[in-house]
Amino acid sequence: MAVSAVMVTAFASTSAYAQEAAAGAAATAAAKPVDMGPIYKSAIFYAMLFLLLCLFIAIVGKAMRVYELTREAQDKPIGINWNAVNAVLFALFLIVGLYGVYWEYTVHGKMILPEAASEHGEKIDQMFNITLIITTIVFILTHIFLFAFSYIYRHKGDRKAYYYPHNNTIEKIWTITPALVLTVLVLMGFLTWRSIFYKVEDPNNKPLSIEVTGSQFSWAIRYAGADGVVGRKNFKLITSQNGLGMDFTDKNNLDDQMADEIVLPVNKPVRFTLTSKDVLHSFYMPHFRVQLNTVPGMASYFEFTPTITTAEMQTKVNDPAFKYVLLCAKICGQGHFNMQKTVRVVSQEEYNEWIKKQPVYINNDLRKEFNLPLVAEPVTAPADTTVKDSAAVTTNQLALKN
Q: For position 375, what pLDDT does the model report?
């Protein structure tokens, strides 16, 4: 450790001298400025501190060991009662640890997500809170018993440990009680899972169909269109023009629409069809408590009902810039961090206005490819230049007069 510390110190000193020399050269030759920031901002500074701390602890430990051996050689009583020291350290560790639990709940507890913005999200939050409360109580009680036992029953020369090898009653208690608690938690999770994935469709309130396709590193959003059905896809049909491989011999594809964001009507069930073009991705919308993998070669489904609009959530969290997001929860490659889409929850009226403006996926190039009749392309009206022309004429007349 000492050699490592010396090497690190020498390296740091050499680097500092090199930086000073470079800084002098830069000042005289107007070269690129050298980073002369504070040394405590560098990783090597903290590595050196760690090594020096280890060296200090080792030296102190050796010195104390020499002290103990010296007293033993002189037939003197033990100078330090290590059993008492360890017991006190256990007690201090318990106090610091319990305070750490309190600090985590009060500080990091404020950083958790706001209330769930979906129907099933409330059930998931309830299940999570019950599990957290139970495990926290067990964690605190077991650690109090563990460390208090170590402190109270530390070794003393005037007493002998009682030999207590077995107790059937205690064995039954700490086997049956956790088994019952875990059984309740597992059943609660199973029933919650079934209520999410096995829904009975209401014919009077059919879910909105949306397909989301993951690829490195983006999401493609496809709405079902007026017929309410998302058309077939075939990976063999993927081309530069047909990036999703949509099969336009299926008439359900003809009115499918593409979007740059996900817009959902509040209190309306939504059924997502999830696929992937390349590797595993994870469809993750944390505020709705939605997460499901997208797997190449197969389709997954997730249905839920959003209950809080974006505007309402902005008011609840007191953040006008708040927005729901779609993320990828799989580390799917270098651009993984960039797989994001904005999700907006709006009223039914706002959704109806928005969906009318979204373009259909098919265009005339794809119609030619699939031998479908062409349609007239939308014509953009020429800009009104009357005001600009009249202004230009007035300017020219003034210039002529001058």
A: 80
C-alpha span between 257 and 351 (Å, rounded): 14
The pLDDT assigned to 164 comes to 83
In whole angstroms, what is the distance from residue 283 CA to residue 340 CA? 10
Q: H-helix or E-strand containing 48?
A: helix 43-73
Q: What own/partner pairs with CB < 8 Å and gap ≥ 24 does 136-140 have?
A: 136/101, 139/101, 140/98, 140/101
**Residues 208-222: pLDDT tens digits?**
999 999 998 999 999
Residues 6+ apart with CB under 8 A from 242: 366, 369
Stretch 49-53: mean pLDDT: 91
Other beta carbons within 10 angstroms of residue 119's beta carbon come to 17
Six token digits for residue 72? 């033993």
The answer to whether the predicted template modeling score (pTM) of the entire model surpasses 0.85 is no
Q: CA 329, CA 316: separation in Å to the nearest integer?
A: 26
What's the DSSP call for residue 296?
B
Q: How many residues does the chain have?
A: 402
Residue 185 makes CB contacts below 8 A (sequence gap 6+) with 127, 130, 131, 134
CB burial string 48-79: b at 16+ within 10 A, e below: beebbeebeeeeeeeeeeeeeeeeeeeeeeee
> How would residue 59 be classed by pLDDT, with cut points 50, 70 and 90?
very high
At residue 382, does pLDDT exceed 70? no
Put the strands of the sheet holding 218-223 in their side by side order: 257-259, 218-223, 208-215, 270-276, 300-304
Give the rounded distance of the alpha carbon of 236 from its chain centre: 34
Chain position carrying tokens 């009975």 = 200
The confidence band for 307, taking pLDDT boundaries of 50, 70 and 90, is very high
DSSP annotation of 379 reads P
The DSSP string of 338-359 is: G--EEEEEE-HHHHHHHHHTSP
* Residue 171 CA neighbour count, 13 Å, CB half: 4
Q: Are 9 and 48 in contact (CB under 8 A)?
A: yes
Running DSSP on this structure, what letter comes out for residue 232?
P
β-pair type (290-294, 300-304): unpaired
Cα 321 from Cα 361, distance rounded (Å): 31
Please check whether residue 143 is in contact with residue 73, taking contact to mean a CB–CB distance below 8 angstroms. no
